[in-house]
């Protein structure tokens, strides 16, 4: 909404069907026009094909072409406005025309004969006026239209409007969510040996008794609640319950307090092993440019989208927006961003980075376990499936780079499309939008990370990524302030970001970890993001990526001076989020009452920081914080629902998407299992949320309705932290904490030459029992290979090396050390000592 002071023009009277009813009463009625202020979007407004939409200066603008004959040859409108017979309405709007023109504004029947209940022909000026009319509806009609007819001019002109309002009639239905029993639990499962927490909504201010019952209804544990006062994120008076002392596995448990019984839940080892895979499988069905095989995803098969086949107009040969460039690019492939068909580099960047980090964690974290099969077309090749999936997106990001190294910010439809719409049926023109520094640095970062991660599997792809990363870095330094426009939001999201210094930091960090080069090291050390407290209310998102760099510098082996301080800074961030979680009676690490767009991803990303502190320190309080934090996502919340499709008794399933649009077309599926909904969003920018959730408080600003794109979309950058954290939780097994093995490893690289290096390893038994037979495992950072070794038997699979004892050094007595070594091959770039060694399956201290 553009706020204008001063001009309150013309109470011009409508010509048709106008009654003399007093405007004052109508003015006070409820607003019936959705999104008449155009603050962030043009949805759900539509236009005829000869027009366009542009959000400009807080208004909706359109260029009206020359040479139309009738007023109705060019129309902008909005549908489904309810009218109630005999109610009086106030219709008003602000509009401009350049040059000045007469337009037509109607509230009308949406079908032939298009009966007009108010009809006006305002004379629009360049500076603009507000026009107001009143009328009394002669009909009951659930779906009237508000339309602006702009045709009939021999010459072209530009129309802009704002604050379109129709007040009066019946108040919109009051929406009350069904929040079920007042005892709120993780509806999926608690780990037997992990923490177990719940929240009770109650008027009571004193502690209450609680009971845990098994599936037979037998009380198996009991205790008293802890009163927590009024929770600001829900305005509910709440108590918390800690039943962590109960450790027996089983299904169908319930928790009772204050006369209410929770939804059922399990106590189960490995309860998240399925989600670890489902959250990643989500990406295959988001793929563009390839047919989704129904045999791999029953119910989700569909033809390839945007693969250069009509009616698609892309993505194999995509031109720029008019005036932006004079070439076309093949930008096929990649993942669709969300519920739309757009593909955005800055959002693809964080998503693919988090998938690669989830994989990289398996090399560097003591509790991490391999990520299994995702049942994708590439399953069964020699590459872990998570990397095959990541590569699908990374290949697309590489295609968005032009020859000078700069990267296009995004590619999407010329105009927003309606729902439902399967990708292969989208007939809109596809366009490349300008290059941006942010997109270029996203490619620099992800390509640098890909270069080291793919090195053991595909040296050619790794080299291609490294070259692209370096080129992008150089280009971004030469063009450090090409920002994406905040008003380039028609047909796709803007993903604009006014500050790209964090993108520079992230890119430099990844390039340094991969190459070890001084240029990147110097940049990292000089960046304000290296030492700043970057642990804000949310640790990271597509526009705030310093944490991606900081976390990788802390967890991935590298030789940065001051790395201990980097690690300590991550632990400090975790302490902050853990404190927020402990202070929150619903146990989430999100210290705010103003919930942001995609708040669930913020919660999960903050958990990633806490989980990383566990990987770095082994301190179980961080691990327990993560296990408690996920409860919010799976039902321990004010709405008493899980936000992940297919997980929990009551779970989100109507996320905003054009092709899993089951609630609009029953022949289409719901989103696949393991899909995270965006979650509560205090700003409720979409019309459904505005109609149903007006005045909502934080946790309540959510509705599982396909029309609520501001609270209930699905996206690639929200499932990526979900999948990272699901893997972390799955890797905790039954929740028992493994003590580190009684060993210490000293890994010293004595010399290196262009094609190789020599390393000596000392393995010390720090325990109290003799080690009788040993097998020591570690991973190389990139493509290093063992050439020849001595005093141990070496084997290598991809980056993972196993060194086993010889018969003569099989036994290591307590306190004794043995030494062995090897010559390694082909270690271009950085070759730091690995951080993680496991002896006979347990991590060395
Ligand atoms: O996730 C994005 C959120 O951070 C922004 O505030 C919002 C408005 O710009 O856009 C969100 O991203 C949407 C994108 O613009 C278009 N595809 C769907 C994305 C998720 O809603």
From TrEMBL:
CBM2 domain residues: 736-845
Catalytically driven reaction(s): Endohydrolysis of (1->4)-beta-D-glucosidic linkages in cellulose, lichenin and cereal beta-D-glucans
Annotated signal sequence range: 1-26
One Gene Ontology term from the biological process aspect of the record: cellulose catabolic process
Active site: 704, 713
UniProt-listed Enzyme Commission number(s): 3.2.1.4
Gene Ontology molecular function, alphabetical: cellulase activity; polysaccharide binding
Family matches, as PROSITE patterns: CBM2, GH9_3, PROKAR_LIPOPROTEIN
CDD domains for this protein: E_set_Cellulase_N (cd02850)
Listed InterPro entries: 6-hairpin_glycosidase_sf (IPR008928), 6hp_glycosidase-like_sf (IPR012341), CBD2 (IPR001919), CBM2/CBM3_carb-bd_dom_sf (IPR008965), CBM2_carb-bd_dom_sf (IPR012291), Cellulase_Ig-like (IPR004197), CenC_carb-bd (IPR003305), Galactose-bd-like_sf (IPR008979)
Keywords from the named record: Carbohydrate metabolism, Cellulose degradation, Glycosidase, Hydrolase, Polysaccharide degradation, Signal
Source taxon at top rank: Bacteria
Family membership noted in the UniProt record: Belongs to the glycosyl hydrolase 9 (cellulase E) family.
Protein name, as recorded: Endoglucanase
Organism: Microbispora rosea
